[in-house]
Amino acid sequence: MTDASLRVQIRPEQPGDGDGIRAVHDAAFGGPLEGRIVDDLRGSEWLIPGGSQVALDDGQIVGHLLLSRAMLVDRHGRAEPIGVIGPVGVLPQRQGRGIGAELMRAAIEVAGRHGLPLVALLGHADYYPRFGFEPARAIGVEPPRSWPDEAWLALRLPGWTAGLRGTVHYPPAFPVE
Ligand SMILES: CC(C)(COP(=O)(O)OP(=O)(O)OC[C@H]1O[C@@H](n2cnc3c(N)ncnc32)[C@H](O)[C@@H]1OP(=O)(O)O)[C@@H](O)C(=O)NCCC(=O)NCCS
Fold it and tell me: 58 in ligand 1 pocket by Cβ < 6 Å?
């Protein structure tokens, strides 16, 4: 952990954080898509309590991560709730100082607390394995569309069992299906 990340406070989103969260994603991703997903999910049944986490430095929102509920649907149509992480964004001038890692650790803790057996995400293959993520298809977790194997990742949590297989159905706010 760097000195910069020690100064940063991680906490669940509170009323009034919306503009700061949108600004982070607009800057981190260079467009409005990710911020809109967060806006669309806010208050919906797909949001996991505590799943929207912000990073604050001196009162300013400098990072945000969203953990939401998704469904893992097996070939018999049985659906099991799991978590999906995304978007994750840190202001460009604050990247590379451990803020993303702090947000990831907070989200993984929330997912475990809610008894979710698995968290999946589409992301950089060089970044997420450090948190325990592994290629998802190798453990029977299929993406909603044909995403590259190396970027489709999953983290098994204590509730995971070998029979947990299927295709992930994202919340409707995600333009993936
Ligand atoms: C990805 C992101 C959230 C990480 O946050 P962060 O605070 O910079 O991350 P940390 O400081 O905890 O970790 C930095 C590490 O992330 C890696 N990283 C950042 N962006 C990366 C990318 N596009 N591809 C691969 N690795 C990346 C850095 O190389 C660095 O690796 P190192 O520790 O081996 O040097 C942030 O860089 C970001 O907002 N990026 C733009 C938006 C984005 O791509 N979001 C993720 C979508 S999956």
Answer: no
Report the nearest-CA residue for atom 48 of ligand 1.
123
Per DSSP, the three-state class of 10 is strand
State the distance between the two ends of the chain, measured CA to CA, in whole angstroms.
37
Residue 153's Cβ-count burial label (10 Å; 0-12, 13-18, 19+) is: buried
- Whether the pLDDT of residue 23 is over 80: the answer is yes
In terms of CATH, what superfamily is 3-169?
Answer: Gcn5-related N-acetyltransferase (GNAT) (3.40.630.30)
Please give the distance, rounded to the nearest whole angstrom, from the Cα atom of residue 117 to the centre of ligand 1: 25
Per-residue model confidence (pLDDT) at position 176: 82
Give the pLDDT of residue 2: 53
Domain ranges of the chain: 3-169
Torsion over CA: 9, 70, 112, 126 (sign): negative
Q: How far apart are CA 41 and CA 10, in angstroms?
A: 20
Q: If you search the block for the tokens 């992930």, which residue do you land on?
A: 168
Whether pLDDT at 6 is above 80: no
Nearest to 56 by CA among 97, 10, 20: 10
Q: Is residue 86 pLDDT above 80, yes or no?
A: yes
